[in-house]
């Protein structure tokens, strides 16, 4: 087997390894507002549920190179303490991809992508109307992760204040994956569908 070691292999190469082996990754499609009320929408594939009691989710905002390393989403959440996580489905994945472009903070990604903003109930950032699932969140905490050069990625934890679920994709409290048609992230430009499913009964 090949051997790779942090500190000896370049971080960019280790990143390629990690996004290719930690798969498939769910995608947090995060909507936020800046302090002036300008809308922002961006996908993050380092994303997971942390707890159900209380309901907490987290995602990672990776810092960029250049004079403004913090992404607009992180800046907005630190300023307003609110955001919405929308779940991406196949039918609007190409529009989602448009929001991954690096654009100035004053650009509204809802307008850029053609996706529809929808008023939230408990937070100010809008939801994505095309999404079947929304989680309105309040910032719980952030956790910077620094490397040797002093740059940092930041884990963002959010308390889920409420869930919105399209009745077409849920029966009771069980989400139907065939109807949700969620999309996940593999390595590089590759995505995956959630169609080829199988069940395993947990041993007693």
- Domains (count): 1
Unreliably modeled segments: none
Please identify which CATH superfamily we are dealing with: Electron Transport, Fmn-binding Protein, Chain A
Please state the second-level CATH architecture.
Answer: Roll
CATH class reads Mainly Beta
Spatial order of strands in the largest sheet: 3-2-6-9-10-5-4
Briefly note the CATH topology name.
Answer: Pnp Oxidase, Chain A
- Tell me, briefly, the overall form: globular
Major sheet details = 7 strands, antiparallel
Number of strands: 14
Structural class by sheet pairing and helices: alpha+beta
**Average pLDDT, all residues:** 93
How much helix is in the residues? Answer: 10-25%
Tags for this entry?
about 200 residues, globular, 5 helices, Pnp Oxidase, Chain A, 7-stranded antiparallel β-sheet, single chain, alpha+beta, 3-stranded antiparallel β-sheet, 14 strands
Task: List strands and helices in order, with pairings.
Layout: H1 11-21, E1 25-26, E2 28-33, E3 39-44, E4 47-52, E5 55-61, H2 72-80, E6 82-87, H3 93-98, H4 109-113, E7 117-118, E8 127-128, E9 133-146, E10 152-165, E11 170-171, E12 174-175, H5 177-180, E13 183-185, E14 191-193
Antiparallel strand pairs: 1-13, 2-3, 2-6, 4-5, 5-10, 6-9, 7-8, 9-10, 11-12, 13-14
């Amino acid at each position: 087997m090949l051997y790779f070691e942090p500190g000896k292999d370049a971080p960019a190469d280790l990143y390629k390894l990690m996004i290719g082996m930690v798969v498939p990754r769910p995608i947090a499609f995060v909507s936020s507002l800046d302090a002036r009320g300008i809308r922002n929408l961006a996908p993050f594939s380092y994303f997971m549920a942390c707890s159900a009691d209380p309901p907490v989710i987290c995602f990672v905002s990776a810092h960029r190179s250049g004079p403004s390393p913090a992404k607009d989403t992180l800046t907005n959440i630190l300023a307003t303490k609110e955001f919405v996580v929308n779940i991406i489905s196949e039918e609007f994945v190409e529009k989602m991809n448009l929001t991954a472009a690096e654009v100035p903070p004053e650009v509204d990604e809802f307008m850029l992508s053609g996706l529809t903003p929808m008023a939230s109930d408990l937070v100010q950032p809008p939801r994505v109307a095309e999404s079947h699932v929304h989680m309105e969140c309040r910032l719980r905490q952030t956790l910077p992760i620094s490397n040797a050069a002093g740059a940092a990625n930041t884990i963002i934890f959010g308390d889920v204040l409420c869930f919105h679920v399209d009745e077409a994709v849920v029966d009771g409290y069980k989400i139907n994956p065939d109807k949700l048609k969620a999309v996940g992230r593999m390595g590089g430009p590759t995505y995956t569908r959630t169609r080829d499913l199988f069940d395993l009964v947990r041993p007693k």
